[in-house]
Amino acid sequence: MNIDQTVALPESITITRPDDWHLHLRDDAAMRAVLPHTASRFARAIVMPNLRPPITTTALAVSYRQRILSALPAGMVFDPLMTLYLTDNTRVEEIKLARESGVVYALKYYPAGATTNSDSGVTAIEKCYPVLAAMERYDLPLLVHGEVTGSDVDVFDREAMFIDQILRPLVARFPNLKIVMEHITTQEAVEFVMQAPVTIAATLTPQHLMLNRNAIFNGGVRPHNYCLPILKRESHRRALVAAAISGLPKFFLGTDSAPHAQHTKENDCGCAGMYTAHAGIELYAELFAAEGALSKLEGFASFFGADFYGLPRNTQKITLKRQAWTVPDVYPFGEHTLVPMRARENIQWQLIASQT
Ligand code: NCD
Ligand code: ZN
Ligand code: ZN
Asked: For ligand 1, is residue 199 a contact (CB within 6 Å)?
């Protein structure tokens, strides 16, 4: 950031209350620990279904939603938008149930073995064609973790390969199916989404916008910067930033905040996922400010996702102040702790008011 830009930055900004279009809330004590971070910032969130066992039916989604609402601290207003975990065995009838429930907003496609808790995922997308056709009819979006899984494919190439092998054919076969490519990490994904029809959108995480793959190996192995898809090289990060601040409605906010207990990440086989809900809007504000693009934050964080899902935009406001604060080293996480993004470091923007 140059000095001129610093001078031009406002002391505070007020924007429409944002939504998080990709979030992991987990369950039970873990959920109770993290939920207030999200609910104090965001009006709504698309809640990922990768619990153990996964949320595969509308009935399971309805009871999970009830557990989330019961865990909300008094006075907090937050609407969890539920998703179903697509499997080889998802039934076509489930799509009608999901749509008619009024609480399920999408289905999530995890290629089997691609990421945390994806072992019940789809083994071959062709098996889901009848279900995808029903989703197209009922206007229920498909959210994708876009990585191929073969051990012969380099971990840094998995997203680009997924676009060519899976996504392009899928878009051609189901032209009216809404698809969100979640947590995109590459220039290839940005280009794909930009040239794709209006039915195709993408979410962008704080970590993929702010860190490149050096962060995984900065002076030694950094397990807290390990997430999937894995961080990519700087040129890809720049492409993601350009997409985020472009003002194009195809790109919107999805934190992918994915809490894991500290000891499961600082481990011989550490879990994938970064925790960002504690600063779920502040990190984006810092990035947009550094890029001289604060005027683009509200569309990205508060409008485009709602528009894509066909939901009303929020009317409440939040205010962020340009005042540095230091992220704690850990947050409580049930009987454990978790290490948040930017632990022990400063974030330049602070949430000071959130209307509900
Ligand atoms: C997520 C998780 O922990 O549930 N992890 C991650 O690295 N992003 C799963 C996912 O979103 O792929
Ligand atoms: Zn994912
Ligand atoms: Zn995720």
From this structure: no
pTM (two decimals): 0.97
Cβ of 120 below 6 Å from ligand 1: no
Element (H, E) at 321: strand 317-321
- Told to judge if 154 belongs to the known catalytic residues of this protein, a careful annotator would answer no
Q: Which of 28, 79, 256, 307 is catalytic?
A: 256
Q: Which domains does the chain have, with CATH numbers?
A: 12-354 (3.20.20.140)
Question: How far apart are alpha carbons 40 and 76 in whole angstroms?
Answer: 7
The DSSP call for residue 92 is: H
The candidate with the shortest Cα–Cα distance to 113, out of 127, 124, 128, is 124
**pLDDT tens digits, the chain, 356 residues: what are they?**
444 555 589 999 999 999 999 999 999 999 999 999 999 999 999 999 999 999 999 999 999 999 999 999 999 999 999 999 999 999 999 999 999 999 999 999 999 999 989 999 999 999 999 999 999 999 999 999 999 999 999 999 999 999 999 999 999 999 999 999 999 999 999 999 999 999 999 999 999 999 999 999 999 999 999 999 999 999 999 999 999 999 999 999 999 999 999 999 999 999 999 999 999 999 999 999 999 999 999 999 999 999 999 999 999 999 999 999 999 999 999 999 999 999 999 999 999 988 88
CA dist 92 and 321 (Å) reads 48
